[in-house]
Amino acid sequence: MIRWVRLNTRWFATRAPLGCVVLLLSSYAGAQSPVPSVGGLVRIFHTDMAILEAQDIRKDLNCTVTPAKPILSFDLKFHAGYDVIVPLKDLAGSENQLTILFRVTPEGHKDDPTFFVQHVRVPLIDDEAKGDATLSGMVDLGEGNYHVDWLMRDRGERVCSFYWDMDASLPSKDKQIELAIGADAVERADGEQFTAEPPIERKAAAQPLNIKLLVNFGPQNHDAAALRPLDTLALVSILRRISREPQFGKFSLVAFNMQEQRVLYRQKSEDKIDFPALGEAIGSIKLGTVDLKRLSQKHGETDFLTELITNEMHGEDHPDALVFAGPKVMLDEAVPQETLKPFADVEYPVFYMNYALNPQAVPWRDSISRAVKVFKGTEYTISRPRDLWFAVTEMVSRIVKLKHVRSSAPSLGQVNQ
Question: Is the whole model's pTM more than 0.70, yes or no?
Fold first, then answer.
């Protein structure tokens, strides 16, 4: 039997036989944090540094460490970490505290390791307690090879130590992908997806390109009762990737949710996307509740999507491109094509970034895809990080080229002259 408990921002698990009562680690002090430096020097206890340098595997405190292979995510960073299992019987007795200290050293910069520390308070645990406690840690990496020196100690100075190597590398066919973190870089893993975007140096232009984004913040499974971080990661990554393009200077955004048939957030044309405000709006989604008014509407979702598309296509703003993004929207009734045809000859290109983790499960077109086809738009399927990179790269190139063609084409008056 596995029981999971969330302590602050991390998940902890205990494994125990059925019927066994288990006391859990109960007051988590926070995720691992970089060890601060003073005058460029990191201060570490001599005993801890000696253990890290010794490269000996110790189990004074019984534990099993399982490293996690670096994996490239949609945010274009490698995520790597570990799980550590400690038998509860080895933590039995009065209250305790576990201190985890580890350093990550890039092979290319062995003189520049990054240290992290993590503290976990252990409550009083009965001597007869059975099962295990599982703790986890994670860091973000750029491309490169790394060595990890890891230790955990309790207040009694019992130590568990472990060491391993990591390879974070792109396949040769993906070497042109520009990661969001530099080579040999090590950073704290940040679970907050909606942090503000740092300033971007834009290309000087008399009229900056204006991009309009319509994003369906919904789960991969249409019937899911909650929106998970995994569901939003690719969508936020698409927005960040677009917002960082130097050729783009203005962004308007409409975030909506099909299940709730509701516009969550609307931003008119601004020089950047307000990610914190967007995140606050996304937090208001409550997929587990049912609105009786919506239930009474026979084609509520189709009507909502039809009205949303027509209103945004008919808006006063004149974007240089319109981009839909989100998971597949499979409706019983398609958006009426006769309603969309008056907008079929829009002067700007239309794109659809279809986020589908398992495209084989639903291989046919969804409702947004059919609508985009009416506008002679282009659809991209986003299933892996490489899909996101190449799709956005191609889309940006097409938008810039079409804008250049339109701006350089002679006007009707010039032709007549």
Answer: yes
